[in-house]
Specification:
The chain is of the alpha+beta class and 395 residues long. It folds into two domains: 101 residues; 237 residues, PPM-type phosphatase domain (Phosphatase 2c, domain 1), CATH 3.60.40.10. The chain has a five-stranded antiparallel sheet. Helix 3 packs antiparallel against helix 4 and helix 3 runs parallel beside helix 5. The chain is elongated, with a radius of gyration of 28 Å.
């Protein structure tokens, strides 16, 4: 089934990528009641098959405790009732208990299990609340992009290093401007909330400046200034480490359908896939955002490159979560080799297929054990045009 770019940009949860593994209790949480149920049946079977000298009926005390660790309070209450009811029933059939001591042990297990199940439910609700906050942050930084937005067909994928966090310092955006589509993909140095804060600040600056500024050089200066101001704010708040950002900004000019303009802030050069195979765009001479003043560059910023791009070619930009992905033996993922193999297939350069294939290949290569956030963005010209209107606040 063909997935449209808007669907891809909604950032499906990690399990949608083949090979990505959620914790077992998360994947099968709706069936967790089966474990205490099997344990209850096992106690009954063992009690039936063992001699009278082997009093296994006291093992019923384990059933509610296991239920408390795996299930919610309602299920725990059910298993507590079953354990208390099963004890006299089994004792009356096989008479293998050791007396009131065994029964009190089962009751004690039930008494212990009930508060444990409540505490577990409260902790699970708190984690869901934190995940909801992370999801809201992700939607702000990495918003959905409609098909054909700005005259380009785009698809993106974000894979957090922590499968439950779902948000980190990598970012991207596709913006429809009066001058043509402008796209960005970047990677903030560091992790945690400071990296997310920097990414959000930079994305917000890009959305405003890329819509207003007619040339990329001015846009580049605005992005550099925004990182500098973000670092200044962070230092006043007590953060000792200054952040820098590697990024690529590409402009698809309306008046040049076979040309793009690019500014590379110390990021890995994008790949271009088309009928003639795979090629890599020239490396940029720029320093990462936030370090231009220390790089000794003329004007302090990288130059704007004018590059050829056929209407049937797709640009793929990735973060270092792709290029630095390692397998169990420590070998890096060879993106170029994989793209050379991929480009020969039918429809392989379609943005949505491309990001899905590369993301799945990275997960397979790492065995699902990602140590860094991963962002992918594929863009090409599209016959669908939904340009922003001059003078609006869109984009």
């Amino acid at each position: 089934m063909r997935v449209r770019s808007a669907e891809v940009n909604r950032l499906p949860q990690p399990p949608s990528v083949p090979g990505t593994q959620l914790p077992v209790l998360v994947r099968y949480g709706h069936r967790s009641w089966l474990i205490p149920a099997v344990l209850l049946v096992a106690v009954v079977v063992v009690d039936a098959l063992t001699p009278s000298s082997f009093a296994s009926v006291s093992w019923l005390a384990l059933v509610p405790v296991v239920a408390a660790g795996l299930c919610g309070p309602p299920a725990t209450v059910v298993f507590c009732c079953l354990a208390i009811a099963m004890y006299p029933a089994l004792d009356s059939i096989w008479a293998k208990s050791q007396g009131v001591e065994d029964f009190l042990l089962v009751v004690a297990g039930c008494v212990l299990a009930l508060p444990l199940s409540v505490f577990r439910a409260q902790a699970a609700a708190y984690v869901r609340h934190l995940q909801g906050a992370a999801e809201t942050t992700r939607q702000v930084v990495l918003r959905p992009v409609p098909p054909g937005w700005g005259g380009v067909d785009s698809a993106a994928r974000y894979l957090a290093a922590d499968v439950e966090a779902r948000v980190g310092g990598d970012f991207y955006d596709v913006l429809a401007s009066p001058f043509g589509a402008r796209v960005v993909l970047g990677d903030v140095q560091g992790k945690g909330l400071p990296a997310v804060s920097t990414a959000a600040a930079l994305v917000g600056c890009f959305r405003e400046a890329a819509f207003r500024e007619p040339d990329l050089a001015t846009l580049a200066s605005r992005l550099e200034e925004r990182v500098h101001r973000q670092n200044l704010l962070a230092s006043r708040l007590g953060e000792e480490e200054e952040r820098f950002v590697t990024a690529v900004v590409i402009w698809f000019p309306d008046d040049a359908p076979e040309e793009i303009q690019s500014v590379n802030f110390g990021h890995d050069s994008p790949h271009v896939l088309g009928p003639d195979g795979v090629r890599k765009l020239p490396p940029g001479s720029g320093a990462p955002l936030g370090l231009a003043g220390l790089a000794g560059l003329v004007g302090g910023l990288p130059e704007v490159q004018r590059l050829r791009l056929g209407t049937d070619e797709t640009v793929l930009i990735v973060s270092d979560g792709v290029t630095e992905a390692r397998d169990r033996q420590g070998d890096f993922f060879d993106l170029r080799e994989y793209l050379d193999e991929l480009v020969g297939g039918p429809g392989a350069t379609a943005p949505e297929r491309l990001v899905e294939a590369v993301a799945a290949a990275v997960v397979r290569h790492t065995g699902g054990r990602r140590t860094d956030d991963t962002a992918l963005l594929a863009v090409r010209h599209s016959p669908v045009r939904l340009p922003a209107e001059p003078g609006t606040c869109g984009g």
